[in-house]
């Protein structure tokens, strides 16, 4: 039993099904909140993990392909921390700062879109959210 159909619960349910485990995923909300997002950015390591999802080698990458279709990639960022910890500082993240990954970027996708894509994957694997 998995309680909660957020990104973590949906990924866990899909992975359980991929490994031929019986799973039941329940969610208390009857519909997603399309006006608010608890998360907006998917990081490179998360994309690597999502890329491995699927029910066979030829279907791996299905989730990341869909996320990239609806998301916006960015690989450069300057973050300023003015006033934090009693001082000013900033850090520049450049495209090469991601290390050795096939996903050298952040991906902007609202959480509800991520959940919709993960739920589609769950359904392709034979599962459903109750």
Q: Globular, elongated, flat, extended or rod-shaped: what is the shape?
A: globular
Largest sheet: 3 strands, antiparallel
* Backbone CA Rg: 17 Å
CATH level 1 class label:
Alpha Beta
Total DSSP helices: 4
Strand sequence of the main sheet, in spatial order? 3-7-4
CATH domain fold name:
FAD/NAD(P)-binding domain
Structural class: alpha+beta
Distance between the termini: 11 Å
Note down, in words, how this protein is organized.
This protein is of the alpha+beta class. The chain has a single domain, classed as FAD/NAD(P)-binding domain, CATH 3.50.50. 33% of the residues lie in helices and 15% in strands. It has four helices and seven strands. A three-stranded antiparallel beta sheet has the order 3-7-4. Helix 1 (7-18) links the parallel strand 1 and strand 2 (25-26). It starts with a strand and ends in a 6-residue tail after the last helix.
């Amino acid at each position: 039993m998995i309680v909660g159909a957020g990104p973590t619960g949906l990924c866990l349910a899909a992975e359980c099904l991929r490994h031929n485990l019986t799973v039941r995923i329940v969610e208390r909300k009857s519909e997603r909140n399309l006006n608010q997002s608890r998360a907006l950015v998917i990081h490179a390591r998360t994309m690597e993990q999502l890329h491995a999802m699927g029910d066979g080698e030829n279907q791996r990458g299905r989730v990341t392909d869909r996320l990239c279709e609806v998301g916006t990639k960015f690989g450069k960022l300057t973050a300023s921390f003015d006033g934090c910890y009693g001082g000013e500082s900033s850090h520049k993240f450049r495209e090469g700062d991601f290390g050795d990954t096939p996903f050298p970027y952040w991906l902007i996708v609202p959480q509800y879109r991520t959940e919709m894509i993960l739920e589609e994957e769950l359904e392709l694997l034979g599962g459903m959210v109750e």
